[in-house]
Amino acid sequence: MAMAEGFDFEAALNDFCGGWSQAVSSRSPIVGGRLFHKTINCQLAGGGSFAITFSPQGAQMRGGTDPAAHATLTLGEADWRNVLSGTYSLWSVQLAGRQRPILEEDSLLRQLGLIMQSFALRK
Amino acid sequence: MAGATETYANWVRDLKFEDLPEGAVRNAKEQLLGILGATYAGAATEAGQAIIAAVREWGDREESSVVAGNYRTSMRSAALVNSVSAQVLEYEDWVGVVHAGATVVPVALAAAEAVAARGKDMLTAQVAGNEIATRVGFATLGGRGGGNQHAVHQVEVPLVAGKLLRLNATQLMDAVGGSCTQAQFPVVAGWTSHAKGYLTGMPAYTGIAAAQIAAYGFTGNREIVEHPKGYCFETQGLLYPEQLTRGLGEKWHTQDSFTAKPYPMCGFTMAPTDCVLDLVREHDIRPEDVEEVVIECPITFLITGTMWSAVPDMYERIRDPQGSGWSWIPLLFDGYYPIAAAIVDREVTPRQFRPERIFDERIHGLLDKIRFRHDPELDMALVAGRGFGARAMIRTRRGAVHQASITEHRGGPGNPISGADKFRTATRDILSPERQEGIIAAVRGVDEMPDLRELGELLRAAG
Question: Which candidate from B188, B372, B379 shows the least CB-CB separation from A95?
């Protein structure tokens, strides 16, 4: 799904899922069990949505929104771009007041955001 | 079997100066000097000046000194002001995994002065506070908050104050129960403003009040620390309850894991700052020569170092504090600003967080040249207890590449700094050299001081 110029949301999420699979196979300490067997909807405000399910074997991504997902993360394009490129984390977006987390989902989303930043900036 | 709250009360009540290992006493004095430096530096900021003026107007009973305030106030108010001053430059310390000094020291000083305690008694209470805070920290590590957001202080404060007030064990338990019933959790969104100082100031204030009130028979839950729905659970999550009392009186964290911050900043930023300072000093690198700076770091640095990066007008907000309510405090967590300031000024001290440096064009000219890279090996080192490490690379316009690395930042247990040096740096724009050395000598001899009012008088005077 091509989005605005220079940013392909689906491709960026796919890259992230590839990073997850590499990290779990190398037993990276950053990839904690908190996200294992959890599904998170990643939604572009006013745009597409993908559901990602995380496991110790890898991350499976499919188009659309999973109504049974454990959490939903909706961001604008600029924030998705910056979060997936590691410029800042989801926590930064929250502190800037542009993402209002649901209490029960916040811990999962914070963990996801941390991993996204880690993968994007990995040495 | 006694629970943690009761164990703490009995242990704190019975602890004597003679029980403390030499290393714990030595580090307690280092901690005292470092926190006093941070307190003077913080008191000179707009935040410090405001709270010093406000509390003076309260006109409380004159019990304890406000550092650099030229007045005495109630012990709880003195602890509030001094703790806020010690906190607002993020220039404190930690023991184990807990930022202990900015509560433990102001509380111990204020209570000791109020009751004219001996220096030995103050140091004993200070060490006790570190030991309790550290254990609460380990028991709740990995829970809701980490670093300075790790909520623990409502446990140790009433114990530190209560010991100096000579409460019995039941009163100490009631003091902890009272302090912890209205649990406070740090809201990071507020760490843009002076109110960040309340992170330690408010637990200091309410914890002392709880100790003073418990002395009159006011009860509290005597299992509040370890209770399944108690303070630890409600604030952080009680993940490792066995850690609450592990090694109490046998393993001394004040001796083994005391870490002083050499720079006013988030602890996660210190290792990268060490590396960059080493590079610019060793290779005489000038800001205009810098093409690129790459910092390799653990995830902890990335998290905090970019925490305000999604606020596009951060510097405009800092420039207009009356309009925005913002202050220099976000920059104490920022990963970019201190690195750039280190390259331009070859130091990171309280001076770098004054407006004339924050908006310096040469510093701002470097911000876009700094890149971060996450190295999972540094996460592994951290998890294994080998400390916060980092690497830095500076590439110059002429193509030279300079690299530095550090496995444990300055100030850590294996790479200690001098509390006296920190005090001198922190107070160099505030105190004369004679006053600096007078205070350093007094702290070094505090265990021989018969009455803490002597130290209070020394610290109270401004300038």
Answer: B188
B376 with A30: Cβ contact below 8 A: yes
Indicate the residue type of B440.
Answer: I
Interface probe, candidates A89, A90, A110, A115, chain B, greatest B C-beta count within 10 A: A89
For residues B239-263, b (16+ Cβ closer than 10 Å) or e, as one string?
ebbebbbeebeeebbbbebbbbbbb
- Give A53→chain B minimum CA distance, Å: 23
pLDDT tens sequence across B244-274: 999 999 999 999 999 999 999 999 999 999 9
Which tens digit of pLDDT belongs to each residue from B177-188? Answer: 999 999 999 999
Residue with tokens 């405000």: A45
Q: What is the pLDDT of residue B383?
A: 80
- The pTM of the full predicted model, rounded to 2 decimals, is 0.96
- Determine the average pLDDT of the residues in A93-115: 94
The Cα B55–Cα B70 span in angstroms is 12
Q: Do A88 and B310 touch (CB under 8 A)?
A: yes
Question: What pLDDT is stored for residue B329 in this prediction?
Answer: 98
Residue A72, classed as helix, strand or coil, is strand
Q: At which residue do the structure tokens 């703790």 appear? A: B83
Contact (CB, 8 A) for B308 and B334:
yes
The answer to whether residues B123 and B446 touch, using CB atoms and an 8 Å cutoff, is yes
Query: What band does A2 get if pLDDT is binned at 50, 70 and 90?
Result: very low
Residue A122 phi, psi (nearest 5): -65, 140
Looking at chain A, which residue has its C-alpha nearest residue B306? Answer: A88
Q: Give which of B71, B307, B74 is closest to B211, Cα–Cα.
A: B74
Contact B307 A92 (CB under 8 A): yes
* B308 vs A87, A92, A121: nearest CB: A92
The answer to whether the Cβ–Cβ distance between B310 and A93 falls below 8 Å is yes
Spatial separation of the C-alpha atoms in residues B303 and B402, rounded to whole Å: 26
**B140, B129, B151: which is closest to B243 by C-alpha?**
B140
Rounded CA-CA distance A117/A109 in Å is: 12
Q: What's the ipTM?
A: 0.93
Residue with the larger pLDDT of the pair B186 and B462 = B186
3-class state of residue B93 by DSSP: strand
Which residue of A30, A95, A118 is in closest CB contact with B308?
A: A95
pLDDT in tens, B281-304: 999 999 999 999 999 999 989 999
A30 at the B interface (CB within 8 A)? Answer: yes
Q: Which residue has the tokens 């004219």?
A: B116
Q: What single letter denotes the amino acid at residue A72?
A: T
Q: Which of B296, B306, B372 sits opposite A92 (nearest CB)?
A: B306
**If 0-12 CB within 10 Å is exposed, 13-18 middle and 19+ buried, where does residue A56 land?**
exposed
Band (pLDDT 50/70/90 cuts) for residue B386 is: confident
Is B299's CB within 8 Å of A96's CB?
no
DSSP B45: S
In angstroms, the separation between the Cα of residue A1 and the nearest Cα of chain B is 25
For B207, the enclosing helix (H) or strand (E) is helix B198-214
Confidence label for A29 from pLDDT (cuts 50, 70 and 90): low
